[in-house]
Amino acid sequence: MRSKNSKTNPFEVFGLTPKLVKELDDQTLFKLIKALYRILQLYYHPDKGGDPRKALELNLAYESLNLEKNEKLFKEYKNKYIQRLSRKTMFSKLQELETQNRKLTLLADLLKEKCWQLLVERPMVIEEISRKKALKLKIFDLVSHLNFSYLKPSQKSLFFKEIYLIGSEVVKKDRFKRTCYRIKNYRFLGSIKRNYIEPWALLEKHTKDKQVIYNNLINREIFVQEFILFLRPELETNAYLFFFQPEDPQHVVFEGILIKKEEVDLEEVKPLLNKVLLLKEDFAENITDRSLKQD
């Protein structure tokens, strides 16, 4: 008799599909098996010049499915064989879900890119800035903190910087409060709550004298994929701030953590604006390097 542990179900030996086995009643199915057995043995029987191994396989399969001798075993093999239908159904459903997932992923990518286009094409209008007012931002420079965490407590003030939003312009103030820099076409993208992301993991970096140096830049494509769904076009305190410069379309600038924001009169800012220099390059790294040298 056929071993129950055999991977091949005896119904397979006769070329019957699980669907057909399920549709036929036991008596009709057994009659079909007997007819197939006789026909196949005429072809495979050794006396007819057939394959002895195939003939033996047919004999074992027929014994296992002999409804007249062992109805219980017949039903056991039948039920196991029919279960393959549900496995095939599950597999097809899994394939369908995978297809849907690919479509949704593609749609999500398209939506992210559309969000990005809307962000960079919209006018930079920050509703919090009143007319004849400027917005002063105090920011903790996380990139400088990563690069120069060994500084003395007296030098920790270098980790803080100020940015002024004046209309659609962005002005950065030197940490030594001697000069202001207006960055050309510098656009505020938005803020992301600190518990949502870990931006330092995606910062660009390089090695100098066996030390890892972080830049305040994130690849634009990575930013769109990983962060843009968390981005809010608002100045939110205790959140990460991100800016964009069209002259460098491949990067997003990570300014740091917004600690405090306050409105100031333009009259207070005018003395600073008189000292403004136009700076196209990224400000943070240049100022940090110069500040450290002066210390």
Automatic annotation (TrEMBL):
Family annotation (InterPro entries): DnaJ_domain, J_dom_sf
UniProt domain J: residue ranges: 9-78
Identification of the protein by name: J domain-containing protein
